[in-house]
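Example (one chain per record):
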Amino acid sequence: MSDCGCHMEAKNKAERKTLRILLLLNSIMFVLGIVAGTISHSTALIADALDMFADASVYTISLYAVGKSAHYKNRAATLSGIFQITLAVMVVLDVIRRFVWGSSPESGWMMAIALLSLIVNSYCLYLLSKHRQGEVHMRASWIFTQNDVIANFSVIIAGLLVNLLNSRFPDLIIGLSIASLVVWGGISIIRDSQRDQITQ
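Predicted structure:
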């Protein structure tokens, strides 16, 4: 095998290892977040958990694309973006439902799970840092994980405000903000994928 072939195989192996770790961690945090969000009646926490689920799906799609042609990698990135936007719409619907019917979010649960998610996502971001300038499927993973860290900080702030103001509205506002962030991330990676297709 040529040096170029060996280098490519090593790169693919490193990408697969990173994506498998990210997939496992995000799947675990999705389950914890959904359970905690349901118990605490927190839209922001459920939005954060759905973001984790979306990311787990992104990592699965990216894992499929490793070692394949640029066409498959662009398709994987585009599908990831579409999936993120779809889940964000679901979060918006949940925000509307809770705004109409009411909710009583529990700030303690919100902050505890969001802090744990922040630690996990910071580690994921560290793992992805060596791939952030890579091909489009890995850049998609980097963008979505960055958004996760921002979302985690946002949920912690929402929990503090819910506690200080004794109001459910910070939870709803942050839930809507996370959904907007996810939509923007989805649009960004779809555009990135389209630019890659043009330059190929």
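Caption: The first helix runs from residue 3 to 40.
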